[in-house]
Every structure is written in C-alpha cells, then in structure tokens.
Amino acid sequence: MTNKHIILFFLTLITTLITGYSFEGTITGAVLFSLSLLLILGTHEMGHYYYGKKYGEDISLPYFIPAPPVVSIIGTFGAFIRIKSQIKSKKALFDIGIAGPIAGVLVAVPVIIIGLSLSKVVEIDQLNNSPGLLIITGDTLIFKALTLLTLPNLPGGYEYMLHPMAFAGWVGLFVTALNLIPCGQLDGGHILYSLFSKKLHAYISKIMVVMLIILGVGTNEIIVLGDKYFSLLQIFPTVANISFEGWLGWLIWAFLLTVLGTNHPPTVLDDLKVIDNKRKILALVAVMLFIGSFTPVPLTIKQVLP
User: Fold this and answer.
1) Residue 135 parent element (H or E)
2) Alpha carbons 92 and 115: distance in angstroms, whole number
C-alpha cells in the first residue's frame, strides 16, 4: 500500500461523509452512508485483487476516487485497481472479472436490508413540498425484491424516505450494473471476452455503446424525429408504448467507453483453455445480477423550491 492509496482513501472518506451528512443532516447518517459505500466499493475491488494475486498477476490495491459533493451526489467516482501484467489465461480473466461484482453484491444486500429497516415513512405531499433536492432512485429488481421482503406495504399517499445506508446499498447495486455491462474492459467485458471470441467481444461491445447512447437520448426524441421524417408511428404504432426519457449519465458512460476503447487485450494463453461448465453457470449468475441491478433511469434529481 502506497501513500497515494492512503491519501485517496481518506479524501474519499471525507467527501462521502460530507455527502452523507447532506441527506439527513445527522452524523450517524453520514457515517453509515460513507462506511457502507466504501465497504461495498472496497469489497468489489478486493474481489478482483484476491483472484489477481491468486493467479500471480501484478495487481494493485484499490484506488478510491474522491469527488466534491457539488460534482457527485455520492461523494466519489468509485474505485479501481491496476493490473500491470498481461493476464495469463481466459480462466484467470474470468475469475478476476466476476469476483468483484459478486463480492460487492454480497455486501450490498445486507447493507440494503439494514438501511431499509432504518428508513422512515413520510407523506408523499410532504416529500414533494419539502425545500431542497429530491433524489428519486430508479427501481431495480433486486432492490424492489428486498424492499418487499423487508418493509410492509404502505397505504396510498405515503412513501418510504430511504435512509442514507439504504441509498449506499442502492448505489452499490448501480455500480454492479455499470461494471457488468458487456463492453470493453469492464468486468462484463472481461467475462464476455473469456467466454467468446475476440471478434464477438468487439462486436457486442460496439452494440452496447450504441445501446447506451439510446438510453442516454431516450426513445421520446427518437420517436419524434422518426415520426417526423419516416412516419414511424404509422408504420409501428406500438413503438409509442415503449417510450422513455433518456438519462444523461448513459451518454457520459458511452463517451468514456469509446475514449477508453471497446477492444480487449489478449491473454497470454488466449483460446488454449476452454471455460468449464461451473464458470459458465457463474456467467449466467452475472447476467442475472446485471438484469437485477439495472434500471434505465437510475437517478432523477428535482429541486423543490420553498
């Protein structure tokens, strides 16, 4: 561990504490948000680190990335590790790639359950009329299932206001979805490359960038333009039923993936070892985690005026 690791960690601790305090204005909420989020992110990266060391790779400890609260509503841009060596085999690549998301989710789930149990019941009118920023999280299948298992149904006109710890768990699921996108050198890209050919990996990666752009722009704008120039709704009237607004974050993610590159470097023993059935089952688990953690519009932020 270097001084850079330590400094970045404590800076991220500070920025996430500030962000956590802004949610409820309590020190307890700030500490629970910060520690929960850092634990999820750290466990995710340590999953990669453990298997990287197991296979003898030259791999670094996690670097946490602090972010000023005015730039990021969670106080961090996440964490990452550096792999300086060429990964030896597709088996090693698969294990290193999938270990992070699974490890992170195993921590995120209990964090969400505890956080939900600490969440408050409020009137929807009170939420909509309270001055400040209103953060609306998109529903994911895993988060929704945990909510139904943990919390009782509410009568009409009421909603749960997420405790900062529950929000940290939600962020953990969102980070899992981001990393499991089958593109480039994301965790999902590692898994994809280890299972299939380099050509197929490159093809799917490019498709995913296009999909992210569509998610970023939204189908509403596409439908309007399509109907204007091609009478889209007359040809495909059901298209209007699947319309949704875009989320700017997907455009940023598509841009970053394009800049970083959608190709994947080969492993030392590329294609010499076939991935076994046990790992293929784990790949299906990764697909289910991706589906369960994904939401088209992750966050909506509204400014409620006094």
Assistant:
1) strand 132-137
2) 35
pLDDT tens digits for range 99-121: 999 999 999 999 999 999 999 88
Residue 127's domain spans which residues?
3-304
Alpha helices in the chain (DSSP H): 3-24, 27-54, 90-117, 124-129, 141-150, 164-179, 187-195, 198-217, 219-230, 232-235, 248-260, 277-293
295 contacts: CB under 8 Å, gap ≥ 6:
138, 139, 140, 174, 177
List pLDDT tens digits, range 41-76. 999 999 999 999 999 999 999 999 999 988 889 999
What domain count does the chain have? 1
Closest CA to 102 of 50, 154, 167: 50
pTM: 0.89
